[in-house]
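User: Let's play a game. I give you a shape written as tokens, and you guess the letters that built it. Ready? Here's round one.
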């Protein structure tokens, strides 16, 4: 049932504040602002490293997770798309754990990577939406994302719930490893707890602008997305979402890679979507934006109030989100990315929930 939404994808985008709140309450104490200890099957304290593997959007969630596990828990993370991971003959050791992320829990390559790690004797964690799935069944520790059924082929709420779960796990791992003080834990969890309310506010705030901007975006054949830090996986996710449902060709790049190739493509026919909250990388990303502007590139700037106030660059559009804590920025900044792809696809008249050639669950290699 789509309720009063035109598509399941739209419904699932708007469900995010509610499902994230539900997911979070499973991993953190929302009143006390403490993390619940991570599953005993994985002893984060003793770990030397983490190997993450997944496909598509779930892989991009894992890429954000890598930044968090490394930053908050000082756990080195190896990450790869499952179709490569399973054949890389990667040296693994039993002091690593392996984490698999899958909405459906049935993705063939992800399952094969899981079995590869299991054979190598690693403890297996699974971040899944479908708790009865094969991947969940074969894991030692299951971390449900509790997003409820996701019908739209383009993953939205599963992505942000995967992120919310991983943010909580990274903080729990950091705590277990003695790296996060009680005070920092309270701060981080308080930010996570505020997120559902902020997401509701953002969804209402940006909806009209996303709809009008998508009309403009639909005129282009190619779009480039840029971001740094955790906004880099978001740039990849933005590009994936746009191409899969609107069929507009899109690429995501780490902003710092711009001058190593993609800058050659910049002209007035290729808008550049820059995802840049006012974080520690902001100034660097703005200087990449300047390089785009100097070549006549059109910029769609997704930033926060601080970022908007401190950049004087002329843009095709600036989407201003509230200033938020760094740990919740990836979830909050996912919203304009999803809505932009959604409205562009609706405007172009594609089959949003069932895009051509795609299946919700990819059970063949
Ligand atoms: O069920 P899974 O999370 O394992 O699926 C992985 C990908 O097939 C999936 O995320 C795909 O990339 C989505 N269509 C993206 O929106």
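Assistant: Ready! My guess for every position:
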């Amino acid at each position: 049932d789509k309720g009063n939404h035109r598509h399941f994808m739209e419904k699932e985008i708007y469900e995010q504040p509610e499902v994230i709140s539900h997911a979070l309450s499973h991993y953190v104490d929302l009143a006390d602002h403490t993390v619940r200890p991570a599953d005993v099957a994985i002893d984060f304290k003793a770990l030397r490293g983490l190997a993450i593997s997944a496909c598509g959007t779930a892989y991009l969630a894992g890429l954000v997770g890598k930044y968090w596990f490394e930053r908050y828990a000082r756990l080195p993370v190896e990450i790869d798309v499952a179709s490569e991971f399973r054949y890389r003959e990667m040296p693994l050791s039993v002091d690593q754990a392996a984490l698999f992320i899958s909405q459906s829990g049935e993705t063939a390559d992800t399952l094969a990577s899981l079995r590869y790690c299991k054979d190598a004797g690693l403890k297996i964690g699974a971040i899944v939406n479908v708790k009865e799935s094969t991947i969940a069944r074969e894991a030692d520790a299951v971390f449900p994302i509790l997003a409820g059924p996701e019908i739209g082929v383009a993953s939205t709420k599963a992505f942000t719930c995967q992120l919310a779960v991983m943010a909580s796990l990274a903080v729990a791992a950091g705590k277990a490893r003695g790296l996060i003080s009680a005070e920092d834990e309270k701060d981080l969890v308080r930010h996570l707890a505020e997120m559902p309310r902020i997401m509701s506010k953002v969804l209402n705030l940006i909806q009209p602008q996303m709809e009008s901007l998508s009309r403009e975006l639909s005129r282009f054949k190619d779009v480039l997305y840029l971001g740094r830090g955790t906004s880099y996986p978001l740039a990849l996710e933005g590009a994936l979402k746009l191409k899969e449902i609107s069929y507009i060709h899109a690429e995501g790049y780490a902003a710092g890679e711009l001058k190593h190739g993609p800058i050659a493509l910049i002209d007035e026919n290729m808008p550049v979507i820059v995802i840049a909250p006012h974080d520690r990388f902001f100034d660097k990303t703005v200087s990449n934006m300047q390089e785009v502007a100097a070549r006549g590139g059109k910029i769609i700037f997704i930033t926060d109030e601080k970022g908007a106030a401190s950049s004087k660059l002329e843009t095709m559009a600036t989407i201003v989100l509230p200033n938020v804590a760094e740990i919740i920025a990836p979830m909050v900044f996912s919203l304009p990315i999803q809505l932009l792809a959604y409205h562009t696809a609706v405007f172009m008249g594609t089959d949003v929930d069932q895009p051509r050639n795609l299946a919700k669950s990819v059970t063949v290699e």
